Amino acid sequence: MFDRLLNAPLKDTSSMLLTLFLSCSTGLTAGRLSAEDPCLAVGSYKDLCRLAEHLSTQPHQPRASLPAALANIAYEDYCSISFRPQRATWWGKSPTYFETFHRGFVQRDRVQIFTISESETTAIPFSKDDFVYGGSLDAATVPDDLGHAGLKLLHTLEGASEAQELLTFLGASYFRGRSGDTRYGTSARGLAINVALNQDEEFPYFRAFWVVRPQPGDRTVEILALMDSRHVSGAYRFQFAPGSQESRLDVECQLTFRSQPEKIALAPLTSMWMWGDGLQGPPRDRRPACHDSDGLLVRQQVKAGQPAHEWTWRAFARQSYPSVSRIAVDKLTGFGLMQRNRAFYHFDDHNARYDLRPSVWVTPTTPWTDGHIELLELPGAHEGIDNIAAYWVPGGSQAQSKRLTLAYSVAFFAGDHKQQSYVSRATDLRLDRHPGQRTVDLEIRFSGPAVAEMAAESPIQIDTDALRAKVLSKRSERTETGDRLVFLTVQLLEDAPAELAVQLLDGKRVLSERFTYLCPPQTPEFVYPAVYTRQE
């Protein structure tokens, strides 16, 4: 049955467009260190859970202020502040070490950082000696007790000659990871509150981190984090396993709510999609595509107690307004924002190298049932602003729980999900609109062993569903490489975008993932600033 997706414009578009870009400017006061600071008593995740629970009984504290010289600093001057590598904690003493981020520009939150070594907790104080101040910023205007903005973890992978930056925590509850063979792209967050509603979103933030010093031979690094916001206090434990082909974070968290928000979003992912399959870019930008990821992939158990799983692929689309789509899920077994197309010629960008951006996949290790995956797509002004978000919205008692305990993993890797190796995937989409006729021709390419192994003369069923549209014709062709091209002609019945779904079957045997797409009647119009087109 076709999963009906909610797609509707949101009223508060101006704040919505900025939240994903400027979210790291939110937070609250993380007080200066004192001998009585309870953070110094945290030596384990259990200790942190007790601290977070106690914090939830206290009134929420306002954000820390930022000196004017740093609050008003230009982006270029902020980027000119660089950390001195030899000042990093454990530099030269361990294959894993970390640096800190300087506060300034939109990085306003004051964050405390500690290390835990042999059950001893030690504060990492802010020091101007850790940084090189370039640009126009006068280091004398920087307070000696400024505090940190976040941290970055560096690790020397097996067989590598030098360390690479593989994980960062910076801004609100954002974190980014990558494997050795990818670059930073899609980000993750600890939690989102009241996202995609007609009100201001609340951004919880990590106000303190504890990095546990790894022992010789350890393959993971443990990082504890204390979350805080108006509605919630939370304890997080991250176990980071860096890798050349895949880096993974195992996440445990306990959330205690001061008051119940209207909506919570778990394991949020944030990305960027400007144009690509189904949408052309600006006339003066020669790049065929511009995106950190090209679709949302969802894996769910079809019926409780049965081993069968269903894969749903939602190719990204941009409307001229912020839109929200929902995919109902009985039992979630995974979801992610994927950079499926990794051919360099698909992007033709020597600078951004979008072909090297990672896919990011969330796997629950505690039951996530009776909820939905929500996809937020914003128009986006340019590629410097993240305009895509996906997250799990729980239902039932989990959505109203005073205390919530979760466990899941977040993996960063190149390309497709390895467990999807047999089922055929939608790897290309082309649209041809007919002005004045309200019809659209779609060409969808399905690739993978399930269709490649089918004989050329074997019939394949094309199962389609359409909401606010009618499928006028459908057929498929086998290519020389064994792929299947599916051709649809669709008549759009309303002014609102049509919701389409396509899946290939051989009798009752599923051959492909379930391709879904939000297709507007007309090509959305966008104004791209000239400064962001590469040919200006």
From TrEMBL:
Localization per Swiss-Prot or TrEMBL: Periplasm
Domain Glucan biosynthesis periplasmic MdoG C-terminal, first and last residues per copy: 45-518
Keyword Secreted: no
Pfam annotation, one family: MdoG
GO term, biological process aspect, one: beta-glucan biosynthetic process
Assigned protein family: Belongs to the OpgD/OpgG family.
This protein's name: Glucans biosynthesis protein G
Organism this protein belongs to: Roseimaritima ulvae
